[in-house]
Amino acid sequence: MIIERLDFSCALFGLKDGLVFSAPHIPVHLGAMQDAVQYQMRAIEIKGGDCILSIHPCAGGVHLPDLTMSMIMICLGIHPVLEFMSSCGFEVVQAYLAHIQHHAEIAVGNMLRDVSMTTDGVLHASDKMDDGSMINLRVEIDSQERSVTFHFEGTSPMVTS
Questions:
Q1: Is 3 exposed, middle or buried (CB count within 10 Å of its CB: 0-12, 13-18, 19+)?
Q2: Which top-level group of life is the source organism from (predicted)?
Q3: Residues 108 and 67 occupy one common structural domain
Q4: Where are the alpha helices (DSSP H) in 9-89?
Q5: Per-residue pLDDT for the chain (161 aa), expressed as one digit of tens each?
Q6: Which of 39, 44, 55, 80 could cross-link 61 (Cys pair, CB 3.0–4.6 Å)?
């Protein structure tokens, strides 16, 4: 599944709804796309050629301009992928997508290990929003488990706007 917008936010998801790769600039709304894809795949029987637009918050929709996505952009984006599948075969493409995911997992694990060695596994950041609200973030990296935990203690309550 390809998700692409006119601001060139795009992502490719594998058959089992896992993110394979996304745009290098990673706009914040791309982070919610995996949830949106997983929700849609559970809720709807998706067939070849289907296009699903969703902005419902329970379905991972968080970015109203996503509804501006055009069928032309989707068709232009999917065409090279379909050609690749046609020439190599579906199973080969799925295997390559799995390899990309596997190597990305290794690369992220190595990066976490390297960062934890130079920071003792803990990073801190804080910033103020325009209204003075504070965002406090503590990131704990467990290099053995290859996991990250984000803590927001001390962050101001959520605001409306």
A1: buried
A2: Eukaryota
A3: no
A4: 33-43, 71-88
A5: 444 444 556 677 776 657 777 766 555 556 677 777 788 888 888 787 777 777 777 776 666 555 555 655 566 677 787 888 889 988 888 888 888 888 988 998 888 888 888 888 999 999 998 889 999 999 999 988 888 999 999 999 988 76
A6: 55
- Tokens representing 43 are 């809720």
Where does residue 138 rank: exposed (0-12), middle (13-18), buried (19+ CB within 10 A)?
A: middle
Q: Which domain holds residue 64?
A: 2-88
Count of structural domains, the chain: 2
Distance, in Å, from the CA atom of 81 to the CA atom of 72, rounded to the nearest integer, reads 15
Round to whole Å and give the CA distance between 27 and 30. Answer: 6
Q: State the amino acid at position 44 in one-letter form.
A: I
With beta carbons less than 8 A apart as the criterion, state whether 27 and 11 touch.
no
